[in-house]
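Subject: design request, 469 residues
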């Protein structure tokens, strides 16, 4: 009777195990080992990253199996990470977003010391080994600036000279930059220009334009119909020199009072915008500032991106988020793109000034690391080294999951020459909406030539908009 009862209960448990997993697990006396070597928590960063393909490649090369953990964008990423790190089998590597509170991670000992790991022997050669920052690896990098094609510079000046020129342009002040733009425009328009001196180096334009330079019809491809160009894209630089408390103090004051405080920044903005919109590229020939320039049919972002990627302009202001769109237009050109700072004619009192982050005004671009990869500090030394080895290999696979602008952005980030990326706080939003909005700037972009009287009218207009906002 007892045997029949046991047999009955066993059969019942087997039948119910499909619906009651606990019944099945209770019959198992041993815990199965995971079929992977360690896990990596990638957070919500999944597309267009081909995680499975990358990890399969690593397994084929090393025999080490990685378990990827991803969450959907609408899930609680912080809560998920906290839960995972406190499990018996926590991830060896994990992703942290820039806005995530790090205190609990550092106090909990979850952050491994990269400097120790970096000095230890790793299995794989690492071409990005020197990009670590103390205890994190930059994963997702965002930024923008004046984008240019390195191949165009190499064709015009030769490989060696092109590299020197790019470094000299990064360090150039606005006057040197302006002179270069004028000379470059002369070359594009087949006018006589012997060359120029920059950074103690002599540069000579060739007598004839090559295949790439032949396509050029202007220096800048600027999206005149996109009001974000006047606010976000240029304002990030301006914000480094503004004391908003002084600006707020002249609200509700007379226009003259506001103008006294705003004048240096307004001069920087107006003269910087004047240069960039005086040497425009166009869809079929050189562009001209005027009513067409602010027309959505001619100078929207899609059009100007196409102008640049088709080789009609030397520079454009493009965010790294737009890289996939650039690839669709010209995949070959997309692989030789780099960034230069957006040069503005800062007031003499702030020229050369360093921001609180140590970034020098003329040599910096807005950029940020929105996601970083960390190694779990609770792992054994052997596990940490295996994780470090994989992490270095993974970061070298940029052709799979990132764009070629990333290397340019990382250069600025390593040097410390970056501004805070994307000003969205309440004060700066007011400034953007009340002064540098599309409606305000577009009034003046309809005019081709800006003389000093016209620029003074612009200053007064912007100061009045602020004082009455």
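Subject: RE: design request

Done. Sequence follows.
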């Amino acid at each position: 009777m007892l045997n029949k009862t046991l047999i009955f209960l066993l059969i019942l448990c087997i039948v119910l195990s499909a619906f009651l997993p606990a019944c099945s697990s209770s019959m198992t006396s041993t815990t199965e080992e995971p079929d992977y070597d360690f896990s990596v928590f990638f957070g919500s960063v999944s597309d267009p990253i081909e995680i499975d393909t990358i990890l399969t490649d690593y397994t084929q090369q090393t025999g080490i199996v990685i378990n990827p953990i991803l969450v959907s964008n609408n899930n609680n990423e912080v809560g998920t990470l906290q839960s995972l790190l406190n499990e018996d089998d926590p991830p060896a590597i994990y992703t942290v977003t820039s806005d995530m509170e790090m205190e609990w991670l550092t106090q909990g000992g979850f952050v491994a010391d990269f400097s120790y790991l970096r000095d230890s022997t790793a299995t794989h050669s690492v071409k990005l080994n020197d990009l670590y920052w103390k205890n994190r690896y930059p994963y997702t990098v965002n930024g923008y600036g004046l984008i240019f094609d390195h191949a165009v510079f190499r064709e015009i000046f030769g490989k060696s000279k092109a590299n020197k020129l790019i470094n000299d342009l990064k360090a150039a002040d606005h006057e040197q930059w302006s002179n270069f733009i004028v000379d470059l425009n002369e070359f594009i328009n087949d006018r006589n220009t012997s060359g120029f001196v920059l950074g103690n180096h002599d540069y000579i334009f060739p007598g004839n334009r090559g295949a790439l330079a032949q396509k050029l019809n202007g220096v800048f491809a600027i999206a005149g119909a996109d009001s974000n160009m006047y606010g976000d894209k240029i304002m990030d630089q301006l914000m480094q020199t503004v004391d908003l408390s002084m600006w707020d103090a002249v609200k509700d004051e007379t226009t003259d009072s506001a103008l006294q405080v705003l004048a240096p920044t307004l001069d920087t903005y107006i003269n910087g915008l004047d240069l960039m919109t005086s040497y425009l590229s166009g869809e079929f020939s050189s562009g001209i500032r005027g009513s067409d320039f602010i027309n959505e049919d001619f100078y929207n972002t899609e059009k100007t991106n196409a102008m640049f990627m088709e080789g009609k302009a030397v520079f454009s202001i493009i965010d790294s988020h737009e890289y996939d769109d650039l690839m669709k237009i010209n995949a070959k050109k997309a692989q030789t793109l780099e960034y230069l700072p957006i040069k503005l004619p800062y007031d003499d009192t702030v020229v050369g000034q360093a921001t609180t982050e140590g970034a020098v005004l003329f040599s910096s671009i807005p950029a940020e690391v929105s996601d970083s990869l960390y190694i779990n500090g609770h792992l054994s030394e052997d596990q940490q080294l295996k994780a470090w080895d994989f992490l270095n290999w993974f970061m070298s696979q940029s052709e799979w999951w990132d764009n070629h602008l990333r290397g340019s952005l990382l250069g600025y980030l390593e040097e410390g020459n970056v501004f805070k990326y994307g000003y969205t706080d309440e004060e700066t939003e007011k400034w953007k909406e009340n002064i540098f909005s599309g409606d305000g700037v577009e009034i003046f972009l309809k005019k081709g030539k800006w003389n000093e009287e016209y620029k003074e009218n612009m200053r007064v207009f912007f100061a009045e908009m602020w004082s009455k906002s």
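The chain has two domains: 38-141+370-405, 143-367+418-467.
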